[in-house]
Amino acid sequence: MKTISDLKQIIQQYDIAFDQTTLPASLLGYYEQDDTTSYILLSDDIRFQHNLPRVKCVLAEEIGHYFTCIGNNVPYGSNGYHRSLMIEKQENKAIKWAIDYLIDTDLLLDFLSHNTLAKISDIADFFQVTEDFIIKKLELMKRKDCFWQLRDEIYLYLMDLPTITIVDIWDPDFYEYLDSY
Hints:
Layout: H1 4-13, E1 17-21, E2 29-33, E3 38-43, H2 44-48, H3 52-68, H4 80-102, H5 105-114, H6 120-127, H7 131-144, E4 147-151, E5 154-157, E6 165-168, H8 172-179
Parallel strand pairs: 1-3
Antiparallel strand pairs: 2-3, 4-5, 5-6
Helix pairs in contact: 1-3, 3-4, 6-7
């Protein structure tokens, strides 16, 4: 499982400048890159929330920008709509990187195979991330496949997100459930 220390190690390894500072209220983190240096800023506000999972997710997302963006991909002269689309695309790439880095799919499946009654909050506690990150991870997994094998005939079924459904594929009730769709 990834920790804040792992994230700090990446910052050091890739020589990313890091600081906590006052940011606009709508920003918890900020990434920027110039010709020579990459910068990550975390809002002072996040430190006062005493919410380690949130800090971990925000920091991972900002590091995700380092790995998924080349320079500043948002043209300065672009109109509001085009600029918004470019920013959203960059944010989605960075969030996906952060989610995949913090929540290993195999470890998630292993956790669920041993905790078949787990809720989103239980998984978030295990990975020390926000519930939102867990839901996004499951949504990313759902794009690849709706069924993920946990063990033998026991599968994670992702069609009812954010509800986690773990099923025995040989259970007749499950087939009735599928027919209801």
